[in-house]
Amino acid sequence: MRKLGQYLLANPVHAMAAAMLCSVLPLLALPGGFLAGILVGFTTLCRGYKEGLLVLVGVAIPAVMVTFWKHSFLIDLVLLRCLVVWILASVLRATTSWRFVIEIITVIGVIAVIGFYLAIPDVSAWWKALFSHYQGMFNTLVSGQISEDKVSQMINDMAPVATGIFIGLIILLSAFCQSLIARWWQAALYRPGGLGKEFVEIRSGSVLATLMTIVVIAALFHVAIAVDLLPIVIMPLAIAGLCLAHKWVRQNKKIIYLLVAIYIALIFLPVVVISILALAGYVDSWYDIRKHYIVKNLPKKGV
């Protein structure tokens, strides 16, 4: 990875060409889109937003060409995520603050959801119509294992939060992960082990906690846009909660099983675990658990 990184940074055209190639791989059912975002983030972090923008243009060129030839949602999604990665990497390079990065993610998500609601009069009905369009295909895939009534119920349950899930998880969370990997790659070149130290210190601020409080209260009163914003405001706090867990384990290796349990539970009980992590991140926003508990309770040497 070190030699590859040096080769890509030697000339912006190298990274641009690599990103262009990766961006079209989703058309062949290959996960190249994720790699394209990492290349955008890596170049931006190492060389600045201008060279990062050149790599982003490399992703945009095939996206525009494919749109004229045949519209492809997959390649549009790749471009959208790469754009977010470029923004996040530019912010991180300028501020060196992961807290600011997750705040920017939240702002992007909130603006996107509000824009969606302004553009589409009945968002829930729009998602129901879209899901219903693919319902027959889904029924074929599950081969009758799930009844049509059950599928219809799933559609009705998903529609109110579909915008938030799509923007929050498929675009923003993916972009955050791509930015993390890009930062790891940068650290591997210039400061090995640097990302690990940064990751465990990621903490959300009171602004995000206040926003979550407002959104949750509004959602309890069944305000449609607030319900859709729940995934957007929960995601950054859950990230902060996960980083807090990593910090705790880093300071006390005896509880490594806790981290293992969290990742296993994320597979089988994602909603429950994400909610718990978000709650931990929320409390940490106000109380600073690292300062008041974890550091104070470090195991003494020789004990």
Write the layout of secondary structure elements.
Blueprint: H1 2-10, H2 12-24, H3 32-47, H4 49-69, H5 73-95, H6 98-119, H7 123-133, H8 135-142, H9 148-158, H10 162-190, H11 194-199, H12 206-220, H13 224-251, H14 256-268, H15 270-287, H16 289-294
Helix pairs in contact: 1-2, 2-3, 2-4, 3-4, 3-5, 3-10, 4-5, 5-6, 5-10, 6-10, 6-13, 7-9, 10-13, 12-13, 12-15, 13-15, 14-15
What does this structure look like?
It is a single chain. This protein has 303 residues and is mainly α. 82% of the residues lie in helices and 0% in strands. It is built from 16 helices and no strands. The longest helix has 29 residues, at 162-190. It is globular and about 55 Å long. The two termini are 40 Å apart.
Shape: globular
Number of helices: 16
* Helical/strand content category: mainly alpha
Q: State the total count of DSSP E strands.
A: 0
What helical percentage do the residues reach? over 70%
Chain oligomer state = single chain
Strand content: under 5%
How far apart the termini lie comes to: 40 Å
Q: Name the average pLDDT.
A: 87
Main sheet? none
